[in-house]
Structures are given as C-alpha cells and as structure tokens.
Amino acid sequence: MKRLLDGLKVLDFTWAIAGPFVTKFLADHGAIVIKVENAERLDMIRTFQPFKDGKFGINRGGVWAAMNSGKRSLGLDMRRPEGVDIARRLAAWCDVLVENFAPGTVAKWGMSYDELKEINDDIIMVSTSSMGQTGPFAHYHGLGFHLQGFAGFNQVTGFPDREPFGSIPYTDFVGGPFALAALMGALDRRRRTGQGQFIDLSQVEASLHLLSTVLLDSSVNGREAQRDGNRSRSSAPHGAYRCLGDDRWCVIAVTTDAQWRAFGGVLGDPPWTQAPELQTLLGRLERVEELDRRVEEWTLRHAPHDVMERMQAAGVPAGVVEDGKDLAEDPQHEARHFYQHFDHPEIGSALTRRSPVLYSDADSSVTGGAPTLGQDTEYVLTQVLGMSDDEWIALLEAGVVGS
Q1: Each residue of 295-314: pLDDT tens digit?
Q2: What domains can be seen in the chain, in order of their start residue?
Q3: Pick the catalytic residue: 12, 77, 172, 376?
C-alpha cells in the first residue's frame, strides 16, 4: 500500500527527543528525512543508555534507535562555510525543515525562516523550542527533564513527605504531536494556496493542557495541587501494589461501592472487607493507609498478571506495571504488529515501534532502522545534490562532511 507522506522531503535539524520524535513519524509515513549530524558535536541522544550489551557506542543506544527509525544520516560540519552552503542547498530541495535548537541557532547559519524563503519560497519550517521563539524566557536552554519542573509537573509528581519528583520528560513527548498536527495543517494550506509557513511551537505551552485541572483549580478556587503519591480523592484503594516476584507490581483502583464488593469477592470476602465503615468511598478514604497495607498483604502472594486478570474478571480496574520484557512480549502489541525488527550493523536485531495508527488503505509500518552516524552522506551529496564523486570525496577529506 501507499504511504501517506510518500515524496515529502524533510531536512531534519533536530536533536535529543522532542524534535526527533516529530521527524520519526514523518519518516514512518514515507517522508524522505535527512538528519544533519556532526561527529564533533554529537546529538546527545546518541549517548543515552541503554546500549547494546552494555557497551557504549554512538550507534548502539536504544533511545537513539527508538527515535530515529527510517531516517538518513548526513554527517555535516555546520561550523564550516562549506557545510552551511550544503545545508542551504538542501533547504532549497526540501519541503519541510524541522529544528528544535535554542532560538537564534539556525539564524546564525543564515537559515532563519525569512532567509530560507528567499531560496525556497514555499518551505514550511517547524521550530519547536523549550519556550518558543519569543518572550523573556525564550533564550533559556533546557531539556524535557528541566522543562517538566518549569511546566509544573514536578509539583504534583511524588509523595507529600518528599521533595518534588521528576518522572518522564512530558514536554518531549507532548510537543511532538502538536507539531505534527500543525505541520499537517500547513501542508494542506500549501497544497491549496502554494504558500509556506513558519510554525513556532513552545514545548512547555503544549504540555500545559495535561495540567488543565490543576490550573483551573488554582485560578478559580485558589487551591494549589499537592503531591499525593498514588492516592486519589475519588478511589480507595488506589495504588501500585507489590506482587509475587522481583520488583513486580499491579495497579488497582476501586472507585464505586459495587467495585468494592467485587474486590472483596476476589479476595475471598475476608472479614475486614465487610466492615460497615468500608462500604462507602468516604469511609474507605478515611482508612486508606490500612487499606493499602491489607491489599498488599494479598497481592504479595500472587503474580501481577494473576492479580490483574482476577480483578478485571470481577469488574475491578487493574493493570500490571509492565517492564520492558512484558512490553516486548505483550500479545496485544504482537497482534497489531506494533513492534518491528530490523538488522542494525552494530546492534544486531533491533526492535522498533511503528506508528500507533493503522489505516485502511495506507502503510504505516516502519521503513527502516535508525542510521549509523553519517551512513548516508555519499547518497545525500551525490543522489540528492548531484555532486560528483570527486566533489564529495574532497569535502570528506577536508572534514566538511563525515561518513
């Protein structure tokens, strides 16, 4: 089947996670994505753990592999005028340029949107920086691990008697879908009008919709959200409970009184579940610490999948806290062919996830594994830009390009 973005040409100046997350989905849907890299100033995500066999290598990282499937890697030194010239020639070739550097970085290369329009009048440029391109904090540098604090996630993540706890870098993963939606709109507009577009996306702003109830409660009621661990004001028991095995857990959430009765039935209706004060949510909330202790006394004797299946069969919400092995072997993911294997020159057989969207008449499978650094330099220079072998080899010998 066809791919939805077949023929779309993308120049990728992204790094870390927030930007590569955008261009990965473009590549997975058929776009030609050329990622510009440099061995002297590595994309830091190439140095992120885990590594194949625990051995460090810039082509062996699991996070890199996950975020860069299907792309082509061009080794290019943007500190050299010749490197900038090559980048500008590629900007004239592409339909879309995506970057997530600090504001002003690409402008130093003479590649601001206004400058690019002079060589490619219908180009679409996506800049997805930490805080956006304008405002008093636009110049702040940061990664998702920093931005989750700035955006307020750390304040509500963790336990009340401990310091704020950072979890996943939400801003990295939330900004990407917003950028993709905006880009699809810009591509449709260009199709209809012939006009390009500059998209300025703030990763922090994109993530704040996840905290909409916190913002509303503060602005309307003057009430500030606090860290509360795994507790809930609308469910009890509610938490991740240790199960049989090494570091195995299952999440259980009892919201309604009917679910509480069903929960007790799964446990064999021990006397403590019949206590009158536990038959209502308010009563259970008042004794939540005791409930957590008693629930875990039971779950510790059972495997996590056993707990989940027994609870779900009784109508009680529950789910295993899956580890990497669970995810890779999950029958639901397998049934939908969510994971694909690719042979990699340094990693070997590598697992890559495809788009979570399936189409009735279009292919959304991953087109290839993540590239090694500079593996496609010759292809890009000779096949895309039309250089002769003598030209590109001279650039290689001069250190302008790398392979």
Answers
A1: 999 999 999 999 999 999 99
A2: 9-210+336-402 (3.40.50.10540), 238-323 (3.30.1540.10)
A3: 172
